[in-house]
Amino acid sequence: MLVTTESTYSNEHLQAFLDSVSKLSLQHKFHEWYNVEVSAAIDGCKIQGHEVNSDSGSSLIFLRKSVVLCVPEKGHIAHYPRHLIHCFIDDFRHNGKDDDGLVMRAELFSISPSEEQLAWEIQCRSEREVPDVQSSVSRWLQWLNE
To answer: Is residue 76 part of a domain?
Structure first.
């Protein structure tokens, strides 16, 4: 009989996060940073979900009452309490694309000093990509409202 402990649960979510990061096209030193520094920083935390930005290599780790932003190019790991985070969604489909050609934009941001703000943004320029943005926003709102 298999018994799943809280530790096993945490390890599985950490491994899922590291697996997502390993698929990114990053320099070896950044992969190593994730595997050593970020893993050590979040060791024992109950990860509820994560997102990775394949363009920048940055990631967002959702914990029970907070979120952790990881920016490998800066060696930056930042922690933001959930009660300081907000979500905005701009849907340009009904009024035409915005000046940058965006169809939809969503952002998680924090109320904190400007140099320490969370500004996690996803966007799309094609209506085919809208469901992906909506899916992320749904996960964000579920996490924010837990």
So the answer is: yes
Contact (CB, 8 A) for 31 and 21: yes
Cβ neighbour number for residue 136 with a 10 Å cutoff: 16
* Angstrom distance (rounded) from CA 19 to CA 13: 10
Rounded Cα distance between 22 and 16, Å, is 10
Domain that holds residue 36: 6-144
* Residues 99-113 pLDDT 10s: 678 999 999 999 877
Phi, psi of 11 (to 5 degrees): -65, -40
- Structural domain includes residue 1: no
How far apart are alpha carbons 141 and 139 in whole angstroms? 6
| Residues written for the chain | 146
pTM: 0.85
Number of H-type helices and E-type strands within the chain: 4, 7
Separation CA 50–CA 19 (nearest Å)? 11
What pLDDT shows up at residue 107?
95
Total domain count for the chain? 1
